[in-house]
Design the sequence.
């Protein structure tokens, strides 16, 4: 945890420029959930905004709409199995528990929102939904402002990623059907 | 060119799942342009839809709004220098020529739209804008339906990427300031 640093909010979207797969966490009224999401994208620089696509049937959607906030966590190579696990089941189907307990996923508190942040990830964006009912209801597309951002300074500092020497901390990119590629060589 | 195959439209968004940096091409009334864009994302499966963020000051914006269509081209490692070039100047500032002529960028005809497709890329999505004036004007965010898609079958077939053995054809991911990472190892 000592490697986590706050990021200049004006550079928060740089966490997402390269299109990594994410984990969306949400919390409302004592309930929490986590899901994998690849369709997450930067939208604006400062104040930073993002778009996320969240299916209307998901438990995450229910919690994030109720709370008005959610977190984007950026998992890395050493978390691949956990990412596959949380992407394969709905938190709604876990009677009396949640995915964090079910899979032993440790979290820490966000600065500005209720959603928990996932330990072991390499980047985190705390997001507040900008209500846009038409795009939400028509396209399952949410627009949000990033109100705080953090990163593992071993692989992100001075506003950019640098994965060299940390292969297990490289971000991941979903292809299809549970197959991922790591972020590769600088070119 | 013999390596290019049409893609089942229901799997077109798989070209974008892993968040590659793109080249947006556009054409209207005899004018054409090309720009680099990292903020491009899948939105829906079938019919496939995408989101793209295009600044209101760009020449691309002018042409794509006039035509109602544009193409998303997916460049690869061996095109890095060209991607940097087209991202560093506006086509509006090139008197009497365009970026294709200026940088010797070869193209081929799209199937369903007017925008040219860039030779040497490894994936192409032909897109028709779904008019959403509020999101376009407020956020520079465009929603579009993918009406045709193609890929280089050496690295994409049966609905998924497979870059092994083709390092020069790996897609690229922009970090910041002209620094890119290639799509890396499967994990």
Sequence:
């Amino acid at each position: 945890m000592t490697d986590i640093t706050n990021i200049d909010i004006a550079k928060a979207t740089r966490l997402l420029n390269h299109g990594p797969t994410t984990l969306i966490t949400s919390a409302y009224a004592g309930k929490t959930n986590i899901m994998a999401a690849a369709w997450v994208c930067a939208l604006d620089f400062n104040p930073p905004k993002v778009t996320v696509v969240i299916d209307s049937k998901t438990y995450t959607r229910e919690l994030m709409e109720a709370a008005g906030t959610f977190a984007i966590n950026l998992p890395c190579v050493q978390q691949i199995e956990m990412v596959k696990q949380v992407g394969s089941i709905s938190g709604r189907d876990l009677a009396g528990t949640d995915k964090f307990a079910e899979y032993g996923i440790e979290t820490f508190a966000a600065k500005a929102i209720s959603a928990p942040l996932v330990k072991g990830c390499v980047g985190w964006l705390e997001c507040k939904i900008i209500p846009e009912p038409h795009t939400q209801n028509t396209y399952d597309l949410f627009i949000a402002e990033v109100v705080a951002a953090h990163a593992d300074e071993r692989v992100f500092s001075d506003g950019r990623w640098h994965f060299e020497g940390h292969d297990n901390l490289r971000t991941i990119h979903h292809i299809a059907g549970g197959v991922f590629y790591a972020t590769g060589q600088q070119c």
Notes: The helical segments of chain B are 59-67, 80-86, 99-103, 133-139. Chain B has four helices and 14 strands. The mean pLDDT of chain B is 96. The domain at 4-182 of chain B is CATH 2.30.110.10 (Pnp Oxidase; Chain A).
